[in-house]
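## Example pair
The file below holds two records. Each record gives the amino-acid sequence first, followed by its structure token line.
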Amino acid sequence: MKKVIFTAILAIGSVFTFTVNAQTTTSFGVKLSGNLTNVKVSDLQNGSNSFKPGVSVGGFAKIEFGEHFALQPELLLSYMDTKTDTTDGKIRFKYASVEIPVYAMEQLNWGKGKVFIGVGPNVGYGFSADTKTEGLPDWDTNANKLELSHWYMGGGAMVGYEFRMGLSISAGYKLTYDLSSKNKASGTDTQTISLGVGYRF
């Protein structure tokens, strides 16, 4: 697992090193998205999973190589409060994550702005707080808590439109896999659908 994370960080670092030496144009921006996230916990075999609403916020850098191609690394913090139905009752947990996706983007001039589509990998860390099975006593901490903290890696795609003044709208999809589930009682994989707005300075 550590080797996978190190490889991902090294790859992302290589992208930034390459851009320093290349003829590029770099700008920065902020991003806010509404999300629908499905969190699948592996040891809840009888649990029902569904997409739950949440939010993510962060920033990004846009590194343009000419008119039509760009790289867009992002730093995002996401949050969701959800309940999962199981045969033992309802489990409520707050799920948050911080991640770094890097998109390779194709851009096309259209109207008064640009249409863009991007795909790429992302690596991140997910964690939980106040996880509790309803109906169990508070002192039974082992039964009340799920070990949801995990490193994860996955991929995603997005499509959107950026207006000339820097405002953009986008939709995206991400699929991630728990890298540390073999070392824990619980593994956590996620799917996320997002719709967001951004502003590039």
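Second record, same layout:
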Amino acid sequence: MKFPKPQTLESIAALLGVDYVGPSDFPVLGMNEIHVVEEGDIVFVDHPKYYDKALQSKATIILINKQVDCPEGKALLISDDPFRDFNKLTLHFKPFQSSSASISESAQIGKGTVIQPNVFVGNHVRIGENCLIHSNVSIYDHCIIGNNVTIHAGTVLGADAFYYKNRPEGFDKLISGGRVVIEDNVDIGASCTIDRGVTGDTTIKEGAKLDNQIQIGHDTVIGKKCLIASHTGIAGCTILEDEVTLWGQVGVISGITIGKKAVVLAQSGVGRSLEGGKTYFGSPAEEAREKMKQMAYIKQVPYLMEKFKKKT
């Protein structure tokens, strides 16, 4: 997430009420999570296990809960609670804006696009040309939809990320300030839910086709011409490369990559990254032929046990 205009290290430190390490005029251009940070971004870290990863990332400003040696060319913001202060920045630079109309006056809707009754279109949404948005679809603020997109009834674009910190007093929510981006020629079925990124984008690329009742988590990227069947759930920060097929009731863990043209058969559970160009099945998902062999071997166990008993 980029700020509306460049900030300085000193101004951000003053906003948060924290100390800093680095030049007061050190440029601060935005904020992002570790997997999408760029030069000029703030990233937060609050556990020693991840200090090195944050300090060596592309981020040039590290919001951290301990004063450490600052890498050359970077700056630190020293906070007693980086999670809280990261939320403070999101709320400051991208505050919630209530709507007063079903279709916001700030929304941009392209030529030839049809919006059916009872659709909600939030603030600063952009919808391209020749789209069809069916009834009871909710499109939250800042979503971007390309041309020739069809979205069926009851689908929600842009709900908050499922991202919490477990504190003694309860779960503390990481505020979402990202977007959902739908590229051209995408079809989305009924009652799908596509969560926005925490600071970046959840992206559905050109030509992807989604069936009904699919959940896609925050910051996930669905590649071009992917095909996803109903009741599939994809956790956050996952990458599906181009032309991946996920059949019904597939579950995908967060933070992995499924390679180009991979096929995952129905009711499989994907708990690790998968190579492209292969077919997978089972939970945990493995190459389908190998998994079928394993199942065949298991069926032989009663026969082998009986045979062993007779010998003994």
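Notes on the second record: The first strand starts at residue 2 and ends at 8. Helices lie at 9-16, 51-55, 82-93, 288-299, 301-311.
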